[in-house]
Fold this sequence. Notes:
By secondary structure, the chain is an alpha+beta fold. It has helices at 56-71, 78-95, and strands at residues 5-13, 16-21, 24-29, 42-46, 49-54.
Amino acid sequence: xxxxxxxxxxAVDGSVATVxxxxxxxxxRLDVVDEPVEPGDYILNHVGFAIRRIPPDDIEKTLAxxxxxxxxxxxxxxxxxxxxxxxxxxxxxxxx
Length: 96
């Protein structure tokens, strides 16, 4: 199963957005997103592509679900462990 990851759009430059995923910023392609996005919007990212804009009414529920998923990282869940590792590395970098 593949899982998209929600993130907040920080900047848009043509068909590429800078997206913040819990403090980890990544470039995300906007070629296939279902509607235009702008800074402040939330998108669902899958393998480097924004696949949909998350409606404002769904953002809080979506982020809460992902926070719950990431807080229960099982040793055998490689995807969750990878995402948690990225977040932890970004937090370590901020602390210096």
